[in-house]
Give the backbone structure.
Amino acid sequence: MYWMRQYSLPLMLAVTLHGLAAMALYQGWSPQKDVVNMIKPRMVIANLMVLEAKAKPAPKPVAKPAPAQSKPAPSKPKPDNEAARRQREAEQARKRAAEKAAAEAAEEQARLERLARLSELAQTSLDQAISTESADLQAGTEEMIAQSFRLGIYEVVRQNWSRPPSARNSMAAKLLVELIPTGEVVAVTIVESSGNAAFDRSAELAVRQSRRFEVPEENSIFEAHFRQFYFLFQPEDLLR
Amino acid sequence: MLLAWAAAMSSAWGAGSLDTIIIDRGVDSPIRISVVPFKTDPSLMSEANMADIVGFDLARSGQFDPLASENMLSHPSTRQGVFFRDWRILKSAYLVIGNARLSADGSVAVDFELYDVLGEHIMLSRRYNVSRDQWRDAAHKISDAVYEEITGVRGAFSTRILYVLAQNAGSPSAVYRLEIADSDGERSRTLFRSREPILSANWAPDAKRVVYVTFETGRPSIVLQDVDGPYRERLTNFRGINSSPVFSPDGKQLAMVLSKDGDPEIFLMDLATRQLRQLTRHHAIDTEPSWTPDGRSIVFTSDRGGRPQIYQLELATNFLERLTFKGDYNARARMLPDGKNLVFVHRTNGVFHIAWQDLERDNLHVLTQTALDESPSLAPNGTMLIYATQDQGRGILAVVSIDGSVKYRLPSSSGDVREPAWSPFLDG
């Protein structure tokens, strides 16, 4: 038991030290991941749009009831001039206020409409820009996908190609291949012979022995790149 | 008709926008072929099955990998028995089936068919009528036909080889035989037997005569002999070295090495007049001549540069050119039938190899390692080499494909086998 007492302090210190170290490790050293996603945006072509201020006839119907109303009014207070004048002034003031309000309302509307049109324009050009950029990206991605599948096809055919002894590096044979979406070869035809029947046959055999290729599942990419394509058999690694 | 034309036009029209994948490399593995054991009449069962002979021929070429018959799912002998799916499963690209029947007059009728398995169509169908003792010849003809149909190169299986069989060499009871055999080493027979060494056997271009060096007179002499007849004549018996006799491609001249005037030089002998013409005049050793396929130049080994290297001498102009520059020993050269490539014995780091060199591009390729610096001999179609090598202390013959990828040992009789020479095509 004596040894427990003797070791208790060092034990606590050790645990504290390790605990601190663990905490420091946990909190202080998470690796920094700089994800640099470089997508080069298209140059934005900015067009200056000038909006003509259209004089809107809208305020008129608002102001119309006022003079209609004020018309019978002045005909009445002829005998009572003072009251009539005051009333007239009040009415004029009201009319002016109404007209001012109407004008302000009209201006406000015009401004709002201008704003709306501007934002609408901005939106369309932004949409356009987005769609063209995404189309470019889409095409780029599609080409990358097609290229990676093409490499896979190259590898399979290369491993299946056994050249005859009469083959030479100067020979070239072009074959047209048709696939179905599962990747199976359904037709192989020689469209350009190398001039050497054994060489042509070895190329045809290489494709037939491959039987099935890995092709993209995405139907649009398959149709565009893999439904039909050519092989050009042109050796460069022969000794002669 | 119009529809087909329209379809063709539309496909051609759209063709401009189709992708192209360029295949610039391959892996030249031997083509898997299935040679099904031929259906043979019971009375002919004592012969080796044609399929075995054909399979071994095709395997030796280095181009084919015949399927073992025990792995075949079926053994058809006619078109009705052929289910292409069976052969596709076995990954066999080609199929050979056949049968052999004994006719009433004692002759043998051999039929065979070659099929393209993946294309599912027949490529060849032939019949041979041969006598019973031409059984193996018929098999070799089938190998030639199949080889040529698939590779486009003429087959060299219906050819012969010459070699020297030495028994108890170096002892008083030594016996040396000049033997002739089929290209697969079978049906060997002795052309000449001696107690003294026999060397440097070579074929005439018509394959009817052979020439070789014998020590029967106590010193080396050059002898000409018919393959199938009694004719035998001694051509030279000079003082000193008489060796390396080689026929010109037109069969009218013989190149040889004679040292009668001091050091080994190369001479030409006109076979009609027996006149000699000296080709080299140098104090160095000039030996091991061979001809270019056009018959206009001699390729030979000379150490005039200090070490054995290969030179070419144009006969009409006496223009001399050195051909090999790599390694410290290059000798015993033979030119390939295309006249642009050379096969020879090459040594680097003390080890001998058989190598070939592309004369236009000057690059060297090592084909094999050999313990003896024995001359490689080329098949007449230039696709295979036969050479002598050691196996468990015994000299044996091996065949290697020209790209060095496939090697086969030939079955050999007891004794040391040396100095192989491959015959030309036997047009007959």
